[in-house]
Amino acid sequence: MMDELTEMLKGVLEGCVLQILAHQESYGYQIVKELNRVGFTSASDGTVYPILMRLEKKNLVDVTKVRSELGPPRKVYALNAAGLRALASFWERWEFISSRLGMIKERIDQNDR
Amino acid sequence: MTDEERIERAARVKRGGWIGRFVRQRRQWRDHVRRVKALPTDYRFVLEQIERFMWSFATDAQMGEVLEDILALFEDGAASGREVLEVTGEDVAAFCQAVLSEIRSSTWTGRKAEDLNRAIADHARKTASSD
């Protein structure tokens, strides 16, 4: 199931990351841990980093380099005003998709009866 | 090199221009190599594989910035005691592809895709104006 879940998650992971950042500014690995915690166990830096690249390119986040005790300086990402708008738009799209999926499922279930 | 020449060169590096850029890039590159060598063996192996793979798609210097970020990701992973494949995920090629798709306009495949759409847009415009 895990591989199929990863595939499905691809389109919505950006929304998940936006939501996490809306709660609190964060860095790559912290976001990964948060995703793992809610059950997306296949999420890794490898899946999250490309999304952070995209958010940075689209100017939805403000990036600061913060020194860490171990290792190199970390890029810390904070959602900006455009990021908050993108998050609202994500949830709208999500509502649309999930309501349409519900409609399709209901219609086909009825035909079976 | 005399002291005057050295001072003059340092000033040129500071001012920018192509010599400054070259010297700075060479310094950054040396720094990069040093950091890669300091990684644990597994991390170093995977990073070198990723670099070789990614450079073959690169059309400009943006790839360098991205590889710099991945290096930092790896240093952070190694410092916190994780395995390299925990950081990248088991499918390293998929990770590379995901990164490449975010910098499409700096890759050959991205350029080719742009060329294709441009050719079609040009054609559409020409046929529209000849109607």
> How many E strands of chain B?
0
Main sheet strand line-up of chain A: 1-3-2
Domain count of chain B: 2
Shape of chain B: flat
> What is the helix tally of chain B?
7
User: What do the pLDDT scores of chain B average to?
Assistant: 88
Structural class of chain B: mainly alpha
Q: Regions of chain A with pLDDT < 50 over 5+ consecutive residues?
A: none
Instruction: Report how far apart the termini of chain B are.
Output: 69 Å
Element-by-element helix/strand order of chain B: HHHHHHH
Succession of helices and strands of chain A: HHEHHEEH
CATH superfamily of the largest domain in chain B: c-terminal domain of poly(a) binding protein
> What's the alpha carbon Rg of chain A, rounded to whole Å?
17 Å
Write down the overall mean pLDDT of chain A.
90
Our count of domains of chain A comes out at 1
Output the radius of gyration of chain B.
Answer: 21 Å
Task: Provide the descriptors you would attach to this structure in a database record.
heterodimer, A: 113 residues, alpha+beta, Arc Repressor Mutant, subunit A, 3 strands, 65% helix, 12% strand, elongated, B: 131 residues, mainly alpha, c-terminal domain of poly(a) binding protein, 2 domains, 7 helices, flat
Describe the structure.
- The complex is a heterodimer of chains A (113) and B (131).
- Chain A has 5 helices and 3 strands.
- Chain A is an alpha+beta fold.
- Chain A has one domain (2-112): Winged helix-like DNA-binding domain superfamily/Winged helix DNA-binding domain (Arc Repressor Mutant, subunit A, Orthogonal Bundle).
- Chain B starts with a helix and ends with a helix.
- Chain A binds chain B through residues 28-29, 42, 44-47, 49-50, 53-54, 57, 68, 70-75, and chain B through 66, 69-70, 72-73, 75-80, 86-89, 92, 94-95, 98-99, 101-103.
